[in-house]
């Protein structure tokens, strides 16, 4: 385990709760980071509230039958169980399940414990069992699809807080995750504050544009604002709305 | 761009709004067209109303990094933006995204503009960003799955109104699209009127059959109606219901 | 067709209606059966009620065009139609569609007939057409995704009640299927009674654990119950709740 | 097991040995059969000689662990072993392995036995183990890729001589298989004689065309021969070559 | 059709014949172009000689049955035939087959014609029929896998010399293709001269490194040459070898 | 890095050089290990000699662009370079490339260095660049397919000698790898000696069987040897051949 140097501030967390994964994707794209969207995952049951938190990681490798009988769960050091008890409140447990959803990455009891401990969410590029129970929790959860078989069938929990792959994206412990209805973006820790600030402005502008479009405006010249008129309108809108 | 010769009549549009993609698939199958169902797409948020309209097409190719910086959107001729402003009211914008949903084909602002312009719908074999916003619109939208990254990441908008592939189906500008809860059928323009007429009759018969089945009838002999009794019952039902 | 020797008792059925696919998966895993979860299917429209029933099977092979014109449905012996009329009440029709959802495995009229006949459910590793109509029925249905094209496009119905593959799982006629929100487990007939009994106990224990976790308990030592305290607490809970 | 009515004549066999899978594919396409090429298989080690023979089929379903211990091979009735001993000389053993090559469909000892018995070839849409040994035999073999694990790992041999799927193609017992460097075509038994005759002519014409092209001719007007000159040249070539 | 502005010089062609796709990939990577390797294609029969030439493109879309009977080949304007007769000598015919190798992109007669016309090669992200015949030609050919069915089964030839996708890479008419045993790189026309020059130097250095490694040198410090000794050795080697 | 406790003896190495991956797969299957065959890899250029050695592992995660410029190779601690210089002679370098062959796992210079250092082989579930050069080496190499792009495009080298996934198989440092024409088996270190011994006997028996089959024997009763005659014949053969 390494100790991530970055700590998400309350201000950046609040800002990120107000921005979309689409805006973050664009802001990272502008910086040359084109591959930070976790591919192939969706919310278990989206409730219209964003997930924001730093990544606490769990790495699975394929399960070898002799090392993964049902009795391994009796071991107090089993990494999956330890992960659930040590992921810090406000953080997100991110699992590298090698995109294999043929067996579960976790089930509702463990995810409930994570929620009760105040964690911010859970993400796997595999699947959850008892997904209905997980979807009923208040804490956001993202996966590929439901999967009833126990994780021991295909996944051996191995490492905590090492860099992992999740849905083809590198996730370093301490990176900041943002989840909404589209899915989950991974923001490198060192960029989180500036991305949060920049995207807050982007959201303001997009709200203005959407208002204009709903009022009948064309997008060319407005989005992006290449005309003087569009820029003036936006300035006026900002004055008027205080954003 | 080519100018499609066929124009969807109000009568055919109305008929198609009353038939299912399943009926259209069967009617096309009878004519030897076995591959007109766009594979792998589903409604962003189905509202129980069918999508009907002619195809206005947009072709993407894979994005080359040097040709697709964020600044291309400042170009008033960017094909994606032009598509959104020129797809005719009542038509459907259909995008060839090469079945690649790792980046978005479009986002909620552009799709909102399309809806405000009176277009009939939008279809991509890729994904939409801010899918929640798109799902909240009244206009039908079909895609593979949500995807936050900007289209510039993987897609370069190239052509308008050329024949394209969408979900393994050929789509010619002016073809008629029908979408429902199952997905989207592509009806060759030259067949749209006769398919609409034939399917209207099929729907009438299927409503009769469903009524019979709900009343306890067996399907053999009834669906299709191979017995004299079944044919007589249907004739009587048509008299009674005026269909 | 073979006649399965096992008949699901009312007691076992009732027990299975109270257990999750996750519990069954674990119980089968303990017996060395690691591959009984039908991969890649989900409920058409889940209503919070489990599907329980023995398997009546239908095998499709790829359709050869000359053998599968639309007129084959006029044949009173067409295996798909016969399946719908002969699957026993309380049983589940399970279809081997070779995981190919590019054409439908069945549509709403046939599935409605199956429901009216008192069958317990329908499962395909392909797709259904008019999935909306099927989702509106009270009978559970599981598939990969909606698919409008008629089954004749890609599937020839061939055999009834032979062992099949469904979603990479072997299904023998008479096996017991359990479906919930996660998907469908296949329980070998010979194990159904003991699995049902064992899982009933597992569910009781998991309800206890969930209650503890919701009250703030940690999972290590409790799940599984490796401490004397956890075992005593569970014994007391069982006394108190009568479970 | 059913008894196929058709028997491949020596004349048709000889003709098919002289035609390519490409020609057969085109001849079947002209008759509306578009899906007779076994997808995803290639020769284990191609030796420039075509495989021709009728199909003797073996169906695998996914292996359930308790039914497939290593001891099942002691059973004299094990269908895989029986297949190897009963596939008629001159026929081809075709296996439905559900396109799953993660475990073997057969190994070199069984395939050697098949070769020694005078069979014409073996095809699986899975993989062979000890593929090197199989490639060293004189008898043609087609598979997806080599695979070391025993078939018991994933495949239970179930049925002999029932219609099957192989590489997304329906194969009926008695159908005629033609294999060359491109792969394997399945010719419905009832069409074998006429396809063989027609393709013999096509090969003659293609040899003529290739000679012309190698001599510098353009393909337009020649292939197909739409000009009078091309037709006259071909007639002259046939006279000259006696084909 | 557009007319590409760039013409490959004899010097750049000669240089590219001496460099590997790996070197070109690295040189493009340094310029921010990370996606120029055509994915999923390999030489039909590699002969140790590189393919170099500018791209002449052919776009296929999925075939609609009524538009693609066998008789379309009688049409002197059929784009596939026209492509074969108009691709300039020294150029490479590149086909967008949407990565679908279930039917052929072309066969040996057309490819022979292309070779006789002095073209530099042919590439498809689909498959070739009569791949053995194509492999026997002197002209390089790259595809996914052999495929016997006629292109009409799944591909309608539509456009010549428009930008296309091939193996997930954008290919613009006039781009320079380099093929070797690894596969095919697409070099944007505007970069071809500088890439050829830079890679010539890279190859020289790699030959030096390989000589050193074969003589027992470690790679760290040498590859890349971060030590003064390594740089001096390379300078001496260049003096000695005249490269 | 952990230090594996097991060291492969010369005797076990010699035995394994005489057995096939198929035999090892069966021996592991008998012990309940069903998933030890690395899926999807093949020899770069098979030379009829087996690869045997213990696993030295390298783990890649997806590359983040800002962390993986070309200059990282100047770093003397870059894990890929360190792996090549520290993998012990007689061992096999095994790379977890997450089954992603869109960019290379390594190229010919590094693999040549590995060969010169006396390593026993290299395995990746991705691809190699300059595969032709690697295939020309005497040291065995296994991959998915050739891939020209530098590993920096998609892979960041992260860890040495941690447990990894390779082709869906868990590989622990020190496990014993056996490669032949079929592919690569992973033998858990603790089982290597007994598996080598058992398989040596299996190979002896299979050689006997193959001799019998080539002489015209049927497989039933012989393979496995369920008859007294078969067992007596084998005993006699062992006496005669000294095996």
Automatic annotation (TrEMBL), chains A, B, C, D, E, F:
Binding positions (substrate): 107-110, 129
Protein name per its UniProtKB record: Regulator of RNase E activity RraA
CDD domains in UniProt: RraA_family
Amino acids binding Mg(2+): 130
One of the record's GO molecular function terms: metal ion binding
Cofactor dependency: Mg(2+)
Classification via Pfam families: RraA-like
Keywords of this entry: Magnesium, Metal-binding
Organism: Novispirillum itersonii (Aquaspirillum itersonii)
């Amino acid at each position: 385990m390494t100790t991530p140097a970055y700590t998400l501030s309350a201000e950046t967390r609040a800002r990120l709760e107000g921005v979309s994964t689409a805006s973050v994707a664009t802001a990272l794209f502008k910086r040359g980071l084109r591959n930070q969207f976790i591919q192939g995952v969706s919310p278990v049951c989206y409730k219209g509230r964003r997930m924001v938190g730093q990544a606490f990681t769990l790495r699975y490798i394929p399960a070898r039958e002799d090392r993964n009988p049902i009795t391994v769960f009796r071991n107090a050091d089993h990494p999956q169980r330890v992960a659930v008890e040590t992921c810090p409140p406000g953080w997100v447990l991110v699992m590298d399940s090698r995109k294999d959803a043929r067996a579960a990455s976790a089930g509702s009891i463990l995810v409930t414990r994570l929620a009760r401990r105040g964690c911010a969410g859970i993400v796997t590029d595999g699947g959850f069992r008892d997904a209905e129970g997980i979807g009923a929790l208040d804490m956001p959860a993202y996966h590929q699809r439901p999967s009833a078989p126990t994780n021991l069938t295909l996944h051996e929990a191995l490492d905590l807080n090492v860099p992992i792959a999740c849905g083809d994206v590198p996730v370093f412990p301490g990176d900041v995750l943002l989840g909404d209805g589209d899915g989950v973006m991974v923001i490198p820790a060192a960029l989180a504050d500036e991305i949060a600030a920049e995207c807050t402005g982007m959201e303001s502008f997009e709200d203005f544009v959407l208002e204009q479009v709903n009022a009948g405006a064309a997008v060319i010249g407005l989005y992006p604002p290449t005309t003087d008129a569009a820029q003036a309108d936006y300035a006026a809108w900002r004055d008027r709305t205080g954003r």
